[in-house]
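pasting for the record
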Amino acid sequence: MEVNVVSNGFHIVKTRDQIGGTLRTDVFELDTGRFQAFSNYIQDKEEEIIGFAESFNAKEAIRLSRKDLRKQWQSAR
């Protein structure tokens, strides 16, 4: 897992999985203390398929957005 902090309240996490290859997840911390995570596969250049989740915990938002992405990826392919 590779984590790049872009700015305060925003970071990018890259990992790999067996379904679509390298995953990129953008994580934003909102003023309310919640985290929003948007995941997509790097090979999906147009970012047509996006997984989204929101949680009070950053790791949980990441996990849920990846789960949503995998579900949408499999139904679209």
